[in-house]
Amino acid sequence: MIVVQLETLIDFWIRLKRSSLALLSLIVLLGLFLIAGLAPLISPYPPNDTDMLHTLEGPNPEHPLGTDGLGRDILSRIFFGARVSLVVGFSAVSLATFLGTLLGSISGFYGGGLDTAIMRIMDMMFAFPAILLAMLLMSVFGQGLGTTILAIGIVSVPGFSRIVRGSVLSAKEEDYVKAARALGCGDLRIMFKHILPNILAPITVNATMSVSTAILYTSALGFLGLGVKPPQAEWGSMLAKGRTYIFNGPHVIYFPGLAIFITVLAFNLFGDGLRDALDPRMKPRSMGGR
User: Fold this and answer.
1) Which residues, including other chains, have CB under 8 Å from residue 281's CB and lie 6 or more apart?
2) Could you read off the pLDDT of 24-48 as tens digits, one per residue?
3) Which residue, 55, 65, 87, 103, could crosslink 75 as a Cys pair with Cβ 3.0–4.6 Å?
């Protein structure tokens, strides 16, 4: 069993290494995780410390990325903003993955009226632009980190439920599911023991790429003043406050925008590489005869 799992991991790594962009994105993401985790230790200044004598300074030795309109160090705020973006991104996607997998599995496995009811609810959610639905939920639940996670997680559920439903509909017609049913296995055992382990690839890829979308939504809500509460550092709110100084201090918006761009691009490129690596059709030819 261990040997089979080891061979599977080796095959996966070989396929992943084929994409230089995926490997580069993985390095960028690992660096981002390291920065977020060590932000209190590596930040040159506390993120909320103001210095009205040094406002809107451009990049210099004391402030490598300059200061904002309140004299706060932009580099420190970007480091702490990475923590918010990653926490919201992964937490919201984890919530959406759980709920979407649960609803999609029930819908695809049992079908009938239950399937129709669940999918019509998902269609109703799809009818609203996701960011507008998130704004509506934020206005109901209020501002804060927890409510941001909840709002983004809820608006991401329909996408997961659709993917899982389609995968379950296909998987439940496979011979191994029919064999398990013939042996007297119950619905729960078939679902969790046989079907879900075999549809993890599309769920994993969608979850990885959804993190970038969740980070974009986090920044959008922060930009609109509906995200985390100030003065907590967050990239979207940094962009919103920097609009005032776009002509006399453009660096205030350049660096948070660049952080969002690099992070979202890295997650998308890594998701593309992960999709190819998890696709059985991409298996290396040298191992095809096993």
Assistant:
1) none
2) 999 999 999 999 999 999 999 999 9
3) 65
CATH 2.60.40.420 fits 22-44+72-287, yes or no: no
Distances (CA, A) of 26 to 12, 16, 269: 14, 10, 9
pLDDT for position 281: 54
Classify the phi-psi angles of 189: left when phi > 0, otherwise alpha if psi is within -120 to 50, otherwise beta: alpha
Do 157 and 192 touch, CB atoms closer than 8 A? no
CA pair distance 69, 205, nearest whole angstrom: 40
Q: How far is Cα 224 from Cα 32, in angstroms, rounded to an integer? A: 25
Long-range contacts of 193-201 (CB under 8 A, 24+ apart): 195/105, 195/109, 195/168, 195/171, 196/101, 196/105, 198/171, 198/174, 199/164, 199/167, 199/168, 199/171, 201/278, 201/279
Domain boundaries, the chain: 22-44+72-287
216 vs 171: CA distance, rounded Å: 33
275, 5 contact by CB (below 8 A)? no
Distance CA 74, CA 84 (A): 15
Q: Which residues of the chain have pLDDT under 50?
A: 1-4, 282-290
pTM of the model: 0.90
Q: What is the pLDDT of residues 237-271, one digit of tens each?
A: 999 999 999 999 999 999 999 999 999 999 999 99
DSSP-derived letter for residue 64 is: T
Per residue in 12-25, pLDDT tens? 777 788 888 899 99
Contacts of 201 (CB under 8 A, 6+ apart): 278, 279
